[in-house]
Request: fold
Amino acid sequence: MVTQKNGAHAAIQTLKYISLLLAVLVILFPPYIIVVNSFKTKEEFLNNPTLSLPDNFLNFSNFMNAFKQADMGLAFGNTLIIIALTLILNIFLGSAFCYAVGRFDFRGKGLIVGLFLFATIIPQITTQVVNFKTIQGIGLTNNLLGPVLLYIGADIMQIYIYLQFIRNIPNELDESAMLEGASLFRIYRSIIFPLLAPATATIVILKTIAIYNDMFTPYLYLPRQEHVVVSTSLMRFFGVNSGDWQMVSSAIMIIMIPTAILYLFLQRYIFAG
Amino acid sequence: MYGISSGASTVGIVYNKKAFEKAGITEMPKTYDEFLAICEKLKSAGIVHAQPSFVSQAEDHYHDPVYGRAPLLLLTFAYYPAVELIRLSFTNWDGLSPDKQWIGWENYREVFSNPEIFGVFKHNLAYFVVGIIQNILAIYFAVLLNSKLRGKLFFRLLLFLPYILNGVAVAYLFGYVFDTTQGSLNRVLGVFGLPSETSWLGSESFVNYTLASIGLWRFMGFNMVVYLAALQSIPKDIYEAASIDGANGWQSFIRITLPNIYQIIELNLFLTVTGALEVFDIPFVLTHGGPAGASETFVMKILETAFQFNNYGLASAMSVVLLVLVVIVLGVQRYFLNKGRG
Reply:
């Protein structure tokens, strides 16, 4: 009886692993194809099977070409500017707002938090028709500040993370600082904000990845070549003939690597969110 | 955007001077320095007070620039467009001319009577079906990774990986996988002796399922991590008590696990349905709606109507319809799930 149960247990355990391995295979298959083909020369690509390894893993010529052809230097620069500006403004706004909401009671507080919650069900994309006209109206289309303005708004997840952290900061800290004559802004700057650092780290990473990966906003608001960002730089390869897959592959690699690295090294913070 | 099921997307905001002036604020900090300047003002006011006066003092802050600002941003930037959208949906505005002629329900009649507009939702159905499968898989793997298992951190890391990759890059990646002649999927099928000539993205009958499967690849890990977080918050001793009472694995799953992650299932389902209604990026990049419009989604239609045909009135009406649909889905879901829970 016992051995039978153990046998069944082992079988279930094996099934678990098989299903997990299957999932891993499905997940890794597309990136694998990209990795092996990005190192192939054109002849190799045409003559060897798609799935085979490249002859030389040090053949970086595709990467050079892709980088140049898609103007990725410029694209990474622009993306970096947008992300940096957004983060500075967003973190300040978001944390200050949560400090106010998390610490004080005031009329309409419930309403304000409720409004944030409700806003998440307004599909972002539906309001673009109006948003586009407004951004155009204040002359921020074809300007890196346009997307920044669209990104700095706090989303519900950020508010949720910050509020949870603020609740865990003991009130006594604020009170003793107040007794010593610190202003509210001083308290925010010297006590609350530093103590929020882990939450800020999580939010910074999540925001960075979200902005880096967003194609829609830059596509709509930054159509000019000089404002190309990482997501839109890749779109230049659209309609490329399939003979050039090895170059497209390396372009995809270039774009995926930064977030993948960020993810692997900072996953602790991501999963904290 | 299908990415809405990411949960990490930002709430759309818009800058509107007029609305700000109405709210009594004529200057709006455009830089971090200006923000700091306002904060300095606050600081120089020298607010020092002890605990008991917290509430009354804070009420003053509500009207104060910094604490009032964030909700103000939200109101002007997220709700103003929604209201403006409704107003525009009753006009025939072309996006350029200063006059917006009021045409009543004409746009809405067009949305519902023109099969080329409302019929597009047929394509979104595929994303819904695949989204349900995606959630079932996510729960399955979440339960697996919540049990005693060697290497579960590694598996979690890998299954979540697609979620953080760039959407355009993922679209191209799958463009290659699904390519008919050069495509790696067909090559693999060929190796196993299966039909390898399938035109995954060229068939009107299943192009949407092909595209939706990319969404599954991308977002399953995200759903899974959300479920996993919920599972980890269930106290372990409930399971122990159940197994002492003789419950097997399946019974504890049905009786303990599911009821405990009810709210999270509700949340994920909502994200799945709205995600299905709002699909955009993958088909936009990969097929541009083809072949013959078979993979066009409703959001693509909206953008096309507005920015290519300059029919802002009609596009606004379509947006409002989408918005209302999302609210209906939320309402229906809440109603049935609450009823089901008793």
Observations:
- Chain B touches chain A through 107 residues (CB under 8 Å).
